[in-house]
Amino acid sequence: MASEEEGVRHTPQDPAAVREQLDRILASPEFHAPERGRRFLQYIVEEMLEGRGEQLKAYTIAQAVLGREASFDAQNDPVVRIEAGRIRRALERYYLVSGGSDAIRITIPKGGYSPHFSSNEDRPNAGEATSSLNRANKQRSRQRPIAYRDFLLPIGLPALFGAIAVLAIIRPLEAYLSPPKASPGSAASTLESKTRIIIEPFAVLGGTAQGMDLAKGLADQLIAKFMKVENLVVLAPGRSNTETIGPLFSLQGSILVESTVLHLHIRLIDGADGVVIWANQYDRDMGGQTVLDIEDEIATRIAMEISSSRKLNAAASDP
């Protein structure tokens, strides 16, 4: 006989309620996923509700959602795994920010692509669990026989406090218990040595859905690349007006998609005086390549060129 946990994992909730929860997630501004990611989530949920969860493999998803051909090889093309990871993080953020009280929770456990559905009733009540634990502890304490150490506590505790008082007179306890603290001047010097960069949202010329997906994906890739650069701090967009320590730069750009050709114009601006210290243009034919590969290749080149730019290093070293 199947356990209750197995029932939660493999038996979906009421299909109508699950579809209503899916619509709520897709309509929420806190669910940060591009259009292809939304199609991905909708597809696997519908397949699960229709009883075809065992068929949710990378090969079938790549063909049904991402438009891959029959020659698709999941071992050499990780696009499905990458997209599933993005959807997992987007779902976690949604339930953390605004969906915590939703009746149904949709998740995609790691190691597969079949979604799981659970309800608030399936998750244990923390208050009841804590109350039961407290009652059990009290019951055990009443039943525990008196031990020899129980007689030593009235004597041992005053002796311990007396020893601490003697040590405090001879030498402050802080010298024994606290590690040496860095001076404020040293901490400020460390912050001032780091260059700060803001990845601004790219402007999408033409307002196409494909261009908007590319702009969002490229910005995410750039954040990931720049976070690996030593002595560089990546700030969230909209922080340029806040008071910061050290050099501050802003990375801006625009994207235009014409048929299968991508045009990207990008520039790096010094936040101190608004001077453009680096700029470049990237044109890519997207035919025969995945969007993720194009985003990763362009983001890698931009990160390498900017991090090794002599103008950036010179501007960052100016007082």
Helix and strand topology:
Elements: H1 4-10, H2 15-27, H3 35-49, H4 58-64, H5 79-97, E1 104-107, E2 116-119, H6 126-143, H7 148-170, H8 174-177, H9 184-192, E3 195-199, E4 203-205, H10 209-226, E5 232-235, E6 248-258, E7 261-270, E8 276-285, H11 291-307, H12 310-317
Helix pairs in contact: 2-3, 3-5, 10-11
Helix and strand run: HHHHHEEHHHHEEHEEEEHH
Q: How many domain units?
A: 3
Q: Kindly state the mean pLDDT as a whole number?
A: 78
Return the structural class.
alpha/beta
Query: Sheet with the most strands?
Result: 6 strands, mixed
Helix content: 40-55%
Unreliable residue runs: 1-11
Name given to the CATH homologous superfamily of the largest domain: Putative neuraminyllactose-binding hemagglutinin homolog like domain
CATH fold assignment of the largest domain: Double Stranded RNA Binding Domain
Spatial gap, N to C terminus: 72 Å
Which CATH top level class of the largest domain fits? Alpha Beta
Q: How many strand units?
A: 8
CATH-defined architecture of the largest domain: 2-Layer Sandwich
**Radius of gyration (Å):** 28 Å
- The proportion of strand residues reads 15-25%
Gross geometry:
flat
Notable characteristics:
319 residues; Double Stranded RNA Binding Domain; 3 domains; 6-stranded mixed beta sheet; two-stranded antiparallel ribbon; 16% strand; flat; disordered N terminus
If you had to describe this structure to a student in words, what would you say it looks like?
This protein is α/β, with parallel strands linked by helices and 319 residues long. The chain folds into three domains: 4-122, no CATH class; 138-171, no CATH class; 191-317, Double Stranded RNA Binding Domain (2-Layer Sandwich). It is 50% helix and 16% strand. The chain has twelve helices and eight strands. The chain has helices at 4-10, 15-27, 35-49, 58-64, 79-97, 126-143, 148-170, 174-177, 184-192, 209-226, 291-307, 310-317; strands at residues 104-107, 116-119, 195-199, 203-205, 232-235, 248-258, 261-270, 276-285. Strands 3, 4, 5, 6, 7 and 8 form a six-stranded mixed sheet that branches. A two-stranded antiparallel sheet has the order 1-2. A hairpin with a 5-residue loop joins β7 (261-270) and β8 (276-285). α10 (209-226) crosses α11. The radius of gyration is 28 Å and the shape is flat. The N and C termini lie far apart (72 Å). Mean pLDDT is 78; it is low at 1-11.
